[in-house]
Amino acid sequence: MASITFGPDNITVVAAEGEALNVVAARAGVALRSDCGGQGACRKCAVVLESGELRAKDGGPVESRPADGGVEVLACQAVVVGDAVLRVPAENRAADLTPLAKTLGHVAQKLAAHGVDEPLAMRRCVEIKAPAKGDSLADVDRIFDALRAADPHLRRLSADLPTLRALPTVLRESDWSVCTTIVDGPDASDLVNVSAACDIGRTMFGLAIDIGTSTVAVSLVALNTGRVVAAAGKRNGQIRYGDDVISRIIWTEEHEGGPETMRQAAVATVNEVIAEARAAVNVPAADVIAVTVAANSTMMNFLLGIPAGPIRRDPHTPPASWLPLFTAGQLELDVWERAPLMCLPTVSGFVGADITAGVLATGLAEAPGLTVLVDVGTNGEIVVGMEGMLVCASCSAGPAFEGVGIECGMHGAPGAIESVAYDPSTDEVAIEVIGGRAPQGVCGTGFIDLLATLFETGVLDRGARFIPDFPTRRLRAGEYDEPEFVIAFAGEHGATRDIAVRQSDIENLIRSKAAVHAGIAILLGKLHLPPESIECLYLAGAFGSRLGVRKAVQIGMLPDLPAERVQYVGNTSLAGAHLCLVSREAREQVRALAAAMTYVELSVEPGFMEEYVASMFLPHTQTERFPSVARVATG
Amino acid sequence: MASITFGPDNITVVAAEGEALNVVAARAGVALRSDCGGQGACRKCAVVLESGELRAKDGGPVESRPADGGVEVLACQAVVVGDAVLRVPAENRAADLTPLAKTLGHVAQKLAAHGVDEPLAMRRCVEIKAPAKGDSLADVDRIFDALRAADPHLRRLSADLPTLRALPTVLRESDWSVCTTIVDGPDASDLVNVSAACDIGRTMFGLAIDIGTSTVAVSLVALNTGRVVAAAGKRNGQIRYGDDVISRIIWTEEHEGGPETMRQAAVATVNEVIAEARAAVNVPAADVIAVTVAANSTMMNFLLGIPAGPIRRDPHTPPASWLPLFTAGQLELDVWERAPLMCLPTVSGFVGADITAGVLATGLAEAPGLTVLVDVGTNGEIVVGMEGMLVCASCSAGPAFEGVGIECGMHGAPGAIESVAYDPSTDEVAIEVIGGRAPQGVCGTGFIDLLATLFETGVLDRGARFIPDFPTRRLRAGEYDEPEFVIAFAGEHGATRDIAVRQSDIENLIRSKAAVHAGIAILLGKLHLPPESIECLYLAGAFGSRLGVRKAVQIGMLPDLPAERVQYVGNTSLAGAHLCLVSREAREQVRALAAAMTYVELSVEPGFMEEYVASMFLPHTQTERFPSVARVATG
User: Fold this and answer.
1) Cβ atoms of B296 and B377 closer than 8 Å
2) With a CB-CB cutoff of 8 Å, which residues 272-311 of chain B face chain A?
3) Which residues pair with A342 in a beta bridge?
4) Which of A375, B63, B469, B512 has its CA 20 to 30 A from that of B578?
């Protein structure tokens, strides 16, 4: 094992011989730029080797250039052979705390500027004043005094039984110099571990988890810098029990031990994603000392093993809005068993912790004007903020935009078509595929493009039906004579089979977009505010960074706003969980936000069904509400 | 099973056929007077049978007298045959909350007047408003709202994971009427159980535990009335590892797994005493829902499995002063596993929770003038209070007054000589024996009497040495020619063997009394206050109610105060634990008291050794400090 130090912050990590330097840097919490994806082409990951040695991956000498104080090497091309000291030039540090930094509220901006601020758990080495003759201060009070002197921000301190049992021996065997793990709880700071072996400078990690109905995503975060060092995602394994929350809840009710089976399925997927993220940067489970979880109410219940039945029945009550701190061991997650686990707060059965996380991450509640967050996952949730007032609702969008329940649908993974443009003059479809691979299916971003381009070119009418006599070879009768549009024939763009969207798939997608639009319209109506008064609309969800927000307006999913007022902000649920991992202010703010959010139940809201039906058209029955949408097709 | 209701408070308990009515009454928290010990003689346990039936113990008709509204029967003579409704006349209720009520501080007096006041745990049945359409309040918030409406004193509420898992199902299966168990923690009230089966009117119990080095004692307390319904005590089984705390700590250090072995020994004795107390009134383990523990620092560590080594080494630091709430299950006590367990706070390695409990119970800190608490157990602890200032110390008295390490010594149990008077004119020794039995040994109270009578009659000189030519057949050369005084020859008072006190035993007892006196003198000296300014001296410890406080002055254990200023107050450690079980104010006060107590380490205190040596005389080298002590013997 070698010791690798990264300047100018002097972060030291232990690395194995042969380990790639960019992996070691990530594990140290040093986020390097990487525009070429580690191909050695962009030179954005260049670091200066000040002392020690590095090698190329093949064992030969690594390519280097002279540089001030040493030689410059590319982190993606070098591997560890022994101890080394490196310096990271300021211009090569990844600039953003998270991919969202540009759009985040003040907590996130503060963190981006200053790094972490009282993480949920931290490891701190302290030297303790050994007791002098006549000084009979209790061991635990002595360690508390030392911790308080080192960090005046600590709350009232407490210690748990395993720590109390270890304390007298560890303190004396370590000669009053110990490594502590402290949890920043809502009321008190808890000392949950003491050990004699001080891991001086060793980076500890936190894990932010977002459990969506269709997808589970995690960010592995270095707690010294607050930066994401690895990310991973995966289809939620619960899909075998149902595509959406309602069908899964029914499954748990109809099967003996249902909640426990579902809990195990949740834990299994989460642990697979955790393993993937840890493996990417070689972080052992024991070094992951804090966890935050954002999820919709049903997924949160499933993870905790709480029966979710009431969520599917009127009035859709969740079991709890705010949850106490758990430990990762209690929930059987594969990280340090004593790691504190914070579940972000829930507002209602259908506005869960994923949404409170999103409100936190976007800084929605701080925005001066009318601001809207639309999070399209398996459900669509909408939050409207105006001068500190927060109103929210959930609409049953369904998982169509996540590619679930659609023949050619897929998750936004390599092989997914994320951009589609149909040219009727050539009858060709131009596509872009994630990872530049052969297309295998279409993801949410691709479907928004597809609806927009088919409507714009007149393949679909205003009722979202294929126009039977449209002059194209791509429109054909598919299975059971159902009309379908072939995006890519087998062989086209390397596709191994025909990739086609059916009339019933289109209807699924239209129902999703209509539900979202109707939800926004009803919430704005409750505040007596017209859509054009929206100053900023954040569109969140796992669409992918290529989402064309203008297209989402064209198909009538979002109100007709100028493009500059609509911003795609990615997975704000995960971003909010990340903030709570590294900031006490974020943890306090998210609780206050959840308490401040007023839930509106759309299903009992007068006018919702009418608005929903009107929104099933492209873009809407009332075309005057979409003046900017260029109409080519006829209704 | 029968249902027995006691008026006028309408407390209902379930009883088995054939169960004695006084046992059932105790289990209901209805403490009846009993001067004759259940012999049917004193008629103080008479109750009025208003409806239903009772039988005599032999199955025949129970003796009864006509009474207003029914017939009067003696609870100690009647057994249950079926449902019955009884009324307890006010004059037959046991008057005191605890045996200490006369001397207690305001918390105890308040409790004696008003019963319990926010016990550590309580069971409460609540009707919850079922959710209406559109009301998506979380289940847990709904139950919290109902609990707060029923009890405005609740703190911020929280719920643990097992309760959250049970909640959705229990609420709906019970049709929104549930039985809850709530723990009154230091920061929050915790909902730790919900069940659909409401135990309407069923009495729940708490357990106050005092773990002394030599003796473990418990009080089983009915949480509806706050009264002790059963008490039990037992020699601490750890005695096999050493008589005093120091030798036991050494044992744990010299044996592999020592703290764990000692923990198991502590738990085993405590569980035996718990079983005895529960059996006395037929209370199942599951109905004991709260536990408080007072103990000296070492015994507390042993119970918790914390290494106690540092306590025996300068500067004698305890591992913790204030401990978090544990659960009984965590500590393996045989009560309801989720019962909260509060350890009273510790001041130092040698002034433990037993003493903070005593300060709480006696109201020492509230007394207007100079007040002193002296607790003589295996160690002697002293607390001096003056206008809110509290100073405390521990002196190594040793277990001599507990009968440990003395050939003829024994615990204050039946067969123990508790009163001794020697008459030189007849050469007879008059004795009183606990339980009126044949004498088997001498307990602490007896030893104080013995020293006083032997000194007063001149058998012992001022140096506490036997006067060899004293004209008595009772003084003889014992084993190894060591002088000894025979209190009872075999055959005298029914003794089966000679009961004699040896010169070395006398020296042991003298060291104990000298340590106590020197400790008091040094503490008063630090405050520049003479002993005669003491307005009240509370003498606590397991001496027994027959202790002659005047005798404790005569032998120079206590300063020379008028008898009316000295009060024997019994086991204040257990009394303090009892108060914390039934009163939030007591729990808050005891923490404040522990923080306010300044510990003085006598071993480093200038003058302590001189005072100790001077106190080894009878009553003291400076006889002018004991003007009231009649001196017969010559020095």
Assistant:
1) yes
2) 304-310
3) A292
4) B512
Look up tokens 């410059």; give the residue.
A72
pLDDT tens, A213-263? 988 999 999 998 888 889 899 989 999 999 889 999 999 999 999 999 999
Q: What is the SS3 assignment for B510?
A: helix
Q: A360-398+510-625 belongs to which CATH class?
A: alpha beta
Please say if the pLDDT value at position B103 is more than 60: no
**B305 to chain A: closest CA residue:** A165
Which of 140-159 (B) contact A at CB < 8 A?
A: 140-142, 158-159
CB-CB neighbors (< 8 A) of B317 in chain A? 131, 135-139, 142
Contact criterion met (CB below 8 Å) for A235 and A214: yes
Question: Are residues B323 and A348, on separate chains, in Cβ contact within 8 Å?
Answer: no
Q: Is the dihedral of CA A104, A105, A107, A109 positive or negative?
A: positive
Across all residues in chain A, what is the average pLDDT?
Answer: 90
Tokens of B93: 């209720």
ipTM of predicted assembly, 2 dp: 0.86
- Into which CATH architecture does domain B205-343 fall? 2-Layer Sandwich (3.30)
Beta bridge partners of residue B212, listed in sequence order: none
Compute the distance between CA of residue A493 and CA of residue A500 in angstroms, rounded to an integer.
Answer: 14
User: What is the reported pLDDT for A632?
Assistant: 45
- The full set of domain ranges for chain B reads 2-92, 121-195, 205-343, 357-399+510-625, 401-502
Element (H, E) at A245: helix A245-254
Query: Alpha-carbon distance A471 to B504, whole Å?
Result: 119
Question: Fold identical between B121-195 and B357-399+510-625?
Answer: no
The residue among A177, A208, A482 whose CA lies nearest residue A341 is A208
Q: Pairing mode, if any, of strands A215-222 and A205-211?
A: antiparallel
A164–B319: do the CB atoms touch at under 8 Å? yes
Which three-class secondary structure state does DSSP give residue B217? strand
Please tell me the pTM assigned to this model.
0.87
pLDDT digits (tens, 9 = 90+) for A510-526: 999 999 999 999 999 99
Residue A434, both tokens: 């994630």
| B635 pLDDT higher than 60 | no
> What fold does the segment set A121-195 form as a domain?
Ubiquitin-like (UB roll) (3.10.20)
A and B: number of Cβ contacts within 8 A: 141
What three-state secondary structure class fits A273?
helix
Which CATH class, in words, describes the domain spanning A2-92?
alpha beta
Helices and strands of chain A, counted as H and E runs: 15, 28
Give residue A413's pLDDT.
82
DSSP B451: H
Question: Does B168 lie at the interface with A, CB-CB under 8 angstroms?
Answer: yes
What are the residues whose beta carbons fall under 8 Å from the beta carbon of B163, sequence distance 6 or more? Answer: B191, B192, B193, B194
* Superfamily of domain B357-399+510-625, CATH level 4: ATPase, nucleotide binding domain (3.30.420.40)
Q: Which pLDDT tens digit goes with each residue over B192-247?
A: 999 987 666 678 999 999 999 988 999 999 998 888 888 898 989 999 999 889 99
Cα–Cα dist B409/B400, whole Å: 8
* Chain B interface, best mutation among A128, A144, A155, A317, by max B CB count within 10 A: A317
Closest CA to A616 of A465, A448, A502, A469: A465
Local structure of A27: helix, strand or coil: helix
* Alpha carbon of residue A544 to chain centroid: 11
Helix orientation angle between B353-362 and B584-596, rounded to the nearest 10 degrees: 120
Q: Where are the beta strands (DSSP E) in B284-396?
A: 288-295, 326-327, 340-343, 371-376, 380-386, 389-395
